[in-house]
Amino acid sequence: MDLSSPIELDCPSQSRVTSPRIFLREIYGIVMIHQPHKTLTLGLLLILGLSYCSEPATEAHAAQTASPEAAAVTEDSPTAEIEAMLHEHVAILASDEYEGRAPATPGEELTINYLRDQFAALGADPGNGDSYFQSVEVTEITAVGAPALTIQGSDYEASFAYGEEQVVGSQQQIPFVTVQGSELVFVGYGIVAPERNWNDYADIDVTDKTVVILVNDPGYASQDPNLFNGNAMTYYGRWSYKYEEASRQGAAG
Predict the structure, then answer these.
(1) What pLDDT, on the 0 to 100 scale, is given for residue 31?
(2) Which of 182, 205, 213, 190 is nearest to 1 (CA)?
(3) Which of 45, 112, 171, 245 has the fewest Cβ atoms surrounding its Cβ within 10 A?
(4) Are 119 and 190 contained in the same domain?
(5) How many structural domains does the chain have?
(6) Residue 249 counted as domain residue
(7) Backbone angles phi, psi at 97, to 5 degrees
């Protein structure tokens, strides 16, 4: 198969978007990373948990350490209270109202304001003067028009509509990207894992070709506990790994 028509990604005006990031001082020995969607959320939950764990010992706590039976988690125990609190924060941040929390979107604005309010309620001082935020420039790359994707075989041709049937993109900050006349090669899950006796690229030359790869890893896709980690997907199932491995194998796309 060949990509007979060019896949084009035209980025004539790569815009720089100023995206706020929460900036805090070190609290309870945890350094806050300026990325609210992942690490910072975890940091918030850890801090909230530590604030509970650092409470003075009470008779109830002493009773729990006195006997294994008393250490069991109950609805009124500190552990249950912490779990309920963490669940509440996660439920709020993962709700539809936050729209995925992507940078430079209303969802991000809701997210950082929520985290700011929670840190302020804990008594955390701002780390950027009198502000909890630090502006960070990010580059946004948007496909212009409708990039074409046409696959041509020896006796057939198939075209796919952008948006409905295919989506193309690039992480390279250059004005124009094109892939044309590149042979398609199916490589299964695109995984090379010697420790698991698995190599999808064995005896396949993909140099300067475009690889077609299945998402996930064999264990997660099949839910077979005997393959990889079963329903717990490994890094081999991530898109980032598949891109990296395809590049190591010499693929063009």
Answers:
(1) 30
(2) 182
(3) 171
(4) no
(5) 2
(6) yes
(7) -60, -30
